[in-house]
Every structure is written in structure tokens, then in C-alpha cells.
Amino acid sequence: MSEINVKYGENSKQFEGSVSVFDVIKSFDRNASKKALAGKVNGEEYDLDRELPALTDEVISVEPIMPDTRDGLELLRHSTAHLLAAAILDLYPGTQLGVGPALMEDPRYGFYYDIIAPAPISEDDLPKIEKRMSQMTKQNLKYRRDVVSKKEILDIFKERSEPLKCELIDEKVEGDASIYHIDNSPFIDFCLGPHVPHTGKLKAFKLLAISGAYWKGDAEREQMQRIYGTAFFSQDELDKWVKQREEAALRDHRKLGQELDLFSIHDDYGQGLILWHPKGGIIRMEMENFLKEKLKEHDYSFVYTPHIAKRELWNISGHEQNYADSMFAPTMIEDTEFRLKPMNCPFHIGIYKSRPRSYRDLPQRYSELGTVYRAELSGTLHGLMRVRGFTVDDAHLFVRPDQVQKEMGDCLDFAIEVFNTYGFEKINFELSVRGDNKEKYLGADEDWENAENSLATALKNRSIEYERIEDEAAFYGPKIDIKIEDVIGRTWQLGTIQIDFNLPERFELEFKGEDNELHRPVMVHRALFGSVERFFGVLIEHFAGAFPFWLSPVQIAVLPITDRINDYAASIAEELKQAGFRVELNERSDKIGAKIREATVQKVPFMLILGDQELEEDKVAVRDRTKGDQGTFSLEEFIEKARSLRDSRALENNL
RNA sequence: GCCGAUGUAGCUCAGUGGUAGAGCAAUAGUUUUGUAAACUAUAGGUCGUCAGUUCAAUCCUGACCAUCGGCUCCA
Q1: Within 7 Å: CB of A275 and strand B?
Q2: Which residue(s) pair with A333 in the sheet?
Q3: CA A256 – C1' B11 distance (Å)?
Q4: pLDDT tens sequence across A285-295
Q5: What confidence tens digit (pLDDT) does each residue in A237-260 have?
Q6: Cis peptide bond upstream of A194, omega within 30
Q7: What is the pLDDT of residue A56?
Q8: According to the model, what pLDDT value does residue A207 have?
Q9: A225 CB below 7 A from strand B atoms
Q10: DSSP of A230-277, one letter per residue?
């Protein structure tokens, strides 16, 4: 039997026989968790499960470290949240604490802590808090864990006048509870851990924002202040992240919408109501044209319906009962009440119901760019992403039960084609199903099973990876949500394909089957962009305002170098217009550098720079907005290449 | 809607208890320019709105409106 002398921090111990790195760490620190620890042996990193070398006469030093992994980062951030709370208690005694988790999914933040301070904390206080945190990291204060009985922990928090914590503990704890302290700090939290060994491990963190949050996310409960921050293993990583965040801010669609003159929102006209300017309008027209092309290919029909309907219709559809909060108040005309539509479905149903349908008529696929109005709370409005009036690229399919699967598949193909054209390669599909909690869902078990199977099979047949989410379906049917990931890794919920068992019942939809009996059709709601406004917002940010050629509001800037060239430039511009391009001629007497700068800032894909030389040779000098000078082309050659870029809806402007 | 912050020219922002400035943009003139910003001049604002305090308010106080960061909600 060999003996191993191990040094662990300031302590040492003797082990016999085979012993792993984790065994050693655990023997010194009973709270050590494999979840977010690795070991160092004589300064070198070792796997936790690796056995220590059995050398005699040599003292082996072991220390736990956080591994550079997601779990390690989570631990780091959670520990930083505790440090934040400790610093706040130091600076603002009497502060009540809520919860303070690490955030690993949200790219904006790394952790938060909810608090109720004696006096509200403002953004200006963050540097002070951050400074206090930094001081505490220099003191290498230990994180200590204790296990106490439920009564003890409740007494602790009662004495500290923290009723919210008591409420939480009362709900969560059965038997003993785990609490964490930080040395030299009044801070105690009810927490399972694990945590870093001491505050010295926290080397790179930053407080980011302060905002409101409800206790337990319930708008009826206490309003708390939420302090957001993030933490990384190293200052380098933190700096990189901060830089990325700044770059993302430059892509903000509201900022670009202003700079590129795409759209505006005016208080005088109403919050959440979008004015599409000419340059935004032309992009929308291109988007709609492309969509219409695809709808024709997929055999959809085009319908148009009004923006308001009698209140009674919303009673039949159930919106009066379930959706009234989101609807604008009724308007009385003579003796009849009308309401703005929050959805298009009832109107498409009206078209279906306008005559008896035979099984031969199905499927019916009605599409419409239907503008709807929703009375969203003012605090939720956000640029183009959340508005009060918006246009849904809506479609409703009325299908026989035996057609559901094929139609679902076609919807998926459609969605993928469209999103790929816009350059979204990463598309996430979520299948939301009923789950075990069956009472709250409407419709027969058999229908649900068939519908869920059809959706799943359609996904599987296309080898689409998807996430199945139990108990997330709409009350009226299962659905597939389509989320896209943009170039900087943010995901956006856009499209949705939903099966509906409710409205066909409510509106008593029927078709005459082969058997001469009446049957109920299946109704499918389907939208790809979700809202044209939101999709436009996502596109602006995705492309950072530099739209591909086919979408660019101004596709070609014609820039004469001197006034002598203006006539030649005008004739070139005219020919390009004849060829169907969107052209802007800049005849001002600015220097060419200024004209180039202006067109580049406006993200015009191509600039044609025309001087004496081009006039003489009857050519155009082409400049790309990002790649610079592309050399000279004959006008015919340039038009041909540009036409191919446009007609193929190419994402890159390669000539 | 709730919590916090913000609101000055078309845009980005300075500024002061004694009725306001800069840069860019706009307009006019000069310049005729070779691949990211020529020069000069002119014009442009009830300092978010309404009250209050004051001899005097863009500035201090309050209410309201809107915007921003979140929460809740959602396409």
C-alpha cells in the first residue's frame, strides 16, 4: 500500500491506496460538486476521475478549479449573482432579496438578482455596486454552505424581515435546506449551490442594467428591481462580449430605420402604428411579390377581407370571450356594434361557408396579407417587433382529415424555401403538443392523436430535427412554431402552423364526403413571417441594413465625377431604369469621395462612377458597397450581371 | 399596465434660474473634383404637454404624454 501526501490549500492529508482527484477534493470540501469543478494536480489540470499518481516522498498539491465549460460558467455567474447581492446588502442594508439565477440562454445577460431596496436603486448606482463587488473579490471571501432544518432557515429569514424568501422556502423545502454565506458579509441565501470556493475566483464581471420585475413573474405580486449583469472566466472574454453587444446595438432596426429612411412611428398618429416610408415600402413590395410568387406555386388562392366585423361575429369565434383584452373597443354604427379584427380567421371561414363544399373541393387554401389590430399594452411596444397594427401573411387551409399530413408537409417545405431565400439557414422547429394535462384542451383524443402524428410525421419525413414540447399546444390544437436564428445568433419566433379543432366546431364547418354524409373539415392556420412588420425588423437587423441586391431600396447609385459627365450619367441612369432597376443619380457638384461616402452609408449595393475616361470608352466603373472598386464593365455586361443577381434573389452581390 | 431612466433644430448631442448653441442634413453661392466627408453664407427651435413656485422657468416641483431598458403578454 502506497501512501500519498496531499496538500490542499493550507491543509494536508494522507491517503492510502488508489484515490481520485475528486475523492481528494471531496474529502476537504464536502460541498464539492462534479458539476462545475475540475482539479489541478501540481499545477496541471487533471480529470476529476483520474487517480493520483502514487509517488512516495512527494507532496502532491491538489486544487479545485472551475472548468472552462458551460457548467463552470453557470457556476461562475451564479456566484457573481451572490456577490452582487452581498455588495448590495453592504451598501443598502435592509434590502430584501428575491431570486438571483445565472442566465445561460439569454445572449443579453449572464445573471440577475431581484431585490427590493429601502430606496429605489438607480442606474447611476451600478458603478458603485460594481466597485464594492470588486473590492470583495480582492479579499478572497469564502463561500460557505450550511445545511439547516426548515424551521431554522425560516427563522433566519423571518428575523431578517424577508417574507418573500420565507414564502419561497416554505414552498420548496421539505426536510433540510441548504444555505450559502459569504464571509464577512451579512448575505445569506437559500441556495443549493454549488459555488466558487471564494470571491477571488470572480475576475471578470459587469453590471449591465436595472429594470423592473414581478415577484414570481406575476403581475399581481410585488414589483421588484432586477439588476442584470454578466460574468466570464476572463477579462478578454468579457471585453469581447461587450464589443459584440455594441455591434448588435448598431444593427438595431429602429436606429437603421431612421438612418436609412425606412419607416417611422409618430406619437401624433399613435403608438405602435407604423408609417412605411418609400424605401421601406419598396422592400415590403419585394417581400410581398416574392411571397405571392411562392403562394401561386403552392396553389394557394388569394382573398381579401375587411378590417372590421360585427361584434356578434367575434362572439361566435370566441374572441369576445377569450381575446377581448387584446381587441380595440367596439364602435357603434346605427344600432350595430363593430370591432377591428385582431385575426383574419373568421373572415376566411366566411368564404369557406359561403357555399356547400364537397370532398372534391378540398383542400381550400386561402391566403391574405391581412392587417389586424391588437390593443397591446403600451409598455410592450417595441419598434417594428411589437406593434398595434400589423399585417399577417396569413393563410387558412380547410382540409379533409386524410389530407392533413400532406398539407403539413407542404407548409414546411414552403417555410424552408422562403426562409432560405432570405439567408436564414438555421431554422428551429418546435412541435407543441397536448401533454398529459388533457382537460384544458378542446377536442377528441383521437383527433389530437391524429393531428400530432401528422405534424410529427411531416417533420420526420423531411428529416427535420425538432423539439417536442409537451403541454404547450394551443387549447384548440397542436402546432409547429418556426423560429429562425439570425446572423448574430439571436432567435426570433416568426411563423407558426396550427391545427384548429375549435373554430370548425364553432362555425359548424362541413363538407359532403364520398359517402354522401356531412363531415367536419380540419382547419389549419399558417403564417411564415408572422407579421410583415416584425419580419421586416428581423431582416433589417439580420442584414444590418445592407440588404441583398433584390431587396435594396436603391440598387444602383450613378455618380458622375464632374458636371461635364452629367448627361452621360443621366443616359446611363435612364437605361438602368428601363432595365427595371432602382437607380439614384447624384448630379450634385460634390467631390466624388463625398458621393461615394453618401451612397455607402446608405448601403447602396453598387455605385457606377463615371468620369471622362468612362465617357470616352463608353463604360461604367463599378464600385461595390463593401468590396470597393470592381473595375470597368460595358453597360450591357453590368446590366446582365445585375439582372441575374436580382432575378435569382442572390444573397451576395458577386458580379 | 407595472418598475426605473430619458425627452433641447430633420438627425446626433452640448448648455444655463435672466426667453438657446455645435456638428451633420437642408437651401443659396463658389468650386469641377477619380473611389468614404471641398469652402462660404442662409434658414431652421413655444427647449415633450399642462399646471405650480419665482420679479423671471428650457432649467426647480407636480401631473400627464411619449420614448428607452426590463417584467407580464405576444405575431
Answers
A1: no
A2: A336
A3: 12
A4: 999 999 999 99
A5: 899 888 888 888 889 999 999 999
A6: yes
A7: 57
A8: 92
A9: yes
A10: EEESSHHHHHHHHHHHHHHHHT-HHHHHHHTT-EE--TTT-TT-PEEP
Whole-angstrom Cα distance, residue A653 to residue A634? Answer: 18
Q: Could you tell me the strand order of the sheet in which A336-340 lies?
A: A308-310, A336-340, A331-333
In angstroms, the CA of A404 and the C1' of B73 are apart by 31
Residue A577 CB-half CA count within 13 A? 11
ipTM: 0.93
Q: What is the pTM of this model?
A: 0.87
* Side chain identity at residue A485, one-letter code: E
C-alpha cell read off for A554: 436603391
Query: Is the backbone peptide bond immediately before A363 cis, with ω within 30 degrees of 0?
Result: yes
A612 Cβ contacts chain B strand, under 7 Å = yes
Residue type, A410: D
A253 CA to B60 C1' in angstroms comes to 37
Handedness of CA A320, A323, A324, A327 (dihedral sign): negative
How distant is C1' of B22 from CA of A594, in Å?
22
d(CA A209, CA A229) in angstroms, rounded, equals 7
Task: Indicate the burial class of A479 (C-beta count within 10 angstroms; 0-12, 13-18, 19 or more).
Answer: buried
User: How does DSSP assign A38-97, residue by residue?
Assistant: EEEETTEEE-TTSBPP--TT-EEEEEEE--SSHHHHHHHHHHHHHHHHHHHHHHSTT-EE
